[in-house]
Amino acid sequence: VQLVESGGGSVQAGGSLRLSCTHSGYTSSRHCMGWFRQAPGKAREGIASIASDGTISYKDSVKGRFTISKDNARNTLYLQMNSLKPEDTAMYYCAADTGRYCTGSLLDYQYDYWGQGTQVTVS
């Protein structure tokens, strides 16, 4: 299983970015995927997830600003981020929970495969 993020960068507050996560080695339609982030000196946190049945969850601080989606045909997970704030600055990771009964949790310990991360900086 391999996950590769892209799309990070530096933007001004109020701007937008779209992150992509291309994955291989498993069938995303059967499993759960999520986006996580980690700012310097802080714990990693789950911000958005999509379960195998399509159920979507968001961390409260990104609701209404971020949108998670996936294209199973392209094996790609997306995170559209609008109205970015300086506090959104972090390394962003995509992750896959390939467990048979995954729930689309925002808890990082439930995910078993991770990408290398892409940096998002908002000033």
How would you portray this structure in words?
It is a single chain. This protein is mainly beta. The chain is 0% helix and 48% strand. The protein has strands spanning 2-6, 9-11, 17-24, 32-38, 45-50, 56-58, 66-71, 76-81, 90-97, 113-114, 118-122. The strands form 2 sheets. Strands 2, 4, 5, 6, 9, 10 and 11 form a 7-stranded mixed beta sheet that branches.
Write the layout of secondary structure elements.
Elements: E1 2-6, E2 9-11, E3 17-24, E4 32-38, E5 45-50, E6 56-58, E7 66-71, E8 76-81, E9 90-97, E10 113-114, E11 118-122
Parallel strand pairs: 2-11
Antiparallel strand pairs: 1-3, 3-8, 4-5, 4-9, 5-6, 7-8, 9-10, 9-11
- Radius of gyration (CA) equals 13 Å
Q: Give the biggest beta sheet.
A: 7 strands, mixed
- Share of helix among residues? under 10%
Strand content: over 45%
What's the rounded overall pLDDT mean? 94
**In one word, what is the shape?**
globular
Question: What series of H and E elements makes up the topology?
Answer: EEEEEEEEEEE
- If helices are DSSP runs of H or I spanning 4 or more residues, what is the number of helices? 0
Structural class by helix and strand composition: mainly beta
Low-confidence stretches: none
The end-to-end span amounts to: 34 Å
- Tally of extended strands? 11
Oligomer: single chain
